[in-house]
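Hi! If you just cloned this repository, the fastest way to understand the data is to look at a raw example. We've pasted two of them here, unedited. The first protein comes first, obviously.
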Amino acid sequence: MSQMTFVPYGVDSPAGEYRCVDCGFELTLDVSAALPPCPQRDTEPHQKLGWEVKSGCAAVPASDCRK
């Protein structure tokens, strides 16, 4: 079984949909930007501090991404 990977807070990322790996909060970036901290981190314990890529250019090889 492969290990799940995620993108840490603050990393410049392409537009797309992301899910917090700690609490499941969903975030949509309409444009490329640095991934913010999860807004739920002050109300729930967060240890991994990152986002799972659900969709968008970060979810596919760069050669498959149409801009």
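Ok, and the second one:
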Amino acid sequence: MKSNKEMLTPNLNPADSSDSLLMQQMTALQITVTYLEDTIERLDAVVAAQDKQMQDIQRQLKLLYGQLTQKGEQTIAPFDVLADRPPHY
């Protein structure tokens, strides 16, 4: 199978007509465009999946922050040095 560069650089044989040369170039360009379109579609799918993952992670992070805030307000009391003096003093 020829690489894209080989397809885009046709063999300049004097026996080839200019129409044949143009058709080879056109075919090579169409193949290249098809590969590029496929690559763009695959990249778009990856970006969409990553965006969904990021949104899910952000939602989870908000829930965790909310839980930590609620739990922190319920269980942590302010520290008072005089009231909370150890018994050995």
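That's it. A detail worth noticing about the second one: The mean pLDDT is 81.
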